[in-house]
Design a protein that fits this description.
With 207 residues, this protein is of the alpha/beta class. Helices cover 35% and strands 24% of the residues. Strands 1, 2, 3, 4, 5, 6 and 7 form a 7-stranded mixed β-sheet that branches. The longest helix has 17 residues. It is globular, with a radius of gyration of 17 Å.
């Protein structure tokens, strides 16, 4: 049995490798904004953070699972979003937006939402889970520290404009919840999803 990761996230890949799993990486071609917009139009209201990450994780998994039907493979899709004051923040994309977010969230806390969806290639059945972790940012961060962090480029391509497993780690005072959720994929939730397919988590170990 092998795990297929329907994601290009370096953090998710590194997280799985550190946990002993060497996934096959197959990026999906999901148009995330269009997928969210279509679902919001269907249900007639905006999606909350949980709904957004689960929707996108499922869409990514289903797109990749379509080419692995009938195979001895588990296909995993994932997505993350950071919410503060009820507003969802994805990847900032630009240095200006990243710096603006950091100045606003300095000394405050928000919730990182991680969605994961797993499809069993043998049966086509899928299931998902959303996990959350509270993140508290340091209050004593200087403007110079924030400018240097943004200039590194790291926060531009991650949900919430921060990491805990790289350069952003020293700027986080506290985490309440599963740390892997903040990195982008809940390993405990994934273990339970894998076990529900009848596969033991340890069967995915490559070392």
């Amino acid at each position: 049995m092998r795990l297929v990761l329907a994601s290009t996230s370096p953090a998710r890949l590194a997280l799985l490798r550190a946990a002993g799993v060497q996934p096959e990486v197959v990026p999906s071609s999901v148009d995330e904004p269009a997928t969210v917009a279509a679902e919001e139009e269907r249900i007639g209201r905006p999606l909350d953070a949980d709904g957004t990450v689960l929707l996108l994780a499922r869409a990514k998994a289903e797109a990749v699972a379509a080419v692995h039907a009938g195979e001895d493979a588990l296909v995993l899709g994932g997505d993350s979003a950071f919410a503060i004051d009820g507003h969802i923040h994805g990847k900032p994309g630009t240095p200006e937006r990243a710096l603006e977010r950091w100045r606003a969230q300095r000394g405050r806390e928000g919730v990182l939402h991680s969605g994961q969806w797993l499809i069993d290639g043998r049966t086509g059945r899928g299931d998902g889970a959303v996990t959350r972790a509270l993140v508290r940012f340091a209050a004593d961060l200087t403007d110079a520290e924030l400018a240097a962090y943004v200039a590194s480029g790291e926060p531009l391509a991650v949900a919430g404009a921060f990491t805990i497993d790289s350069l952003g780690g020293p700027f986080i005072d506290r985490i309440e919840g599963d740390p892997s959720t903040v990195i982008g994929l809940s390993l405990p939730a994934l273990r339970r999803l894998v076990r529900a397919t009848g596969v033991e988590w340890t069967a995915l170990w490559s070392r």
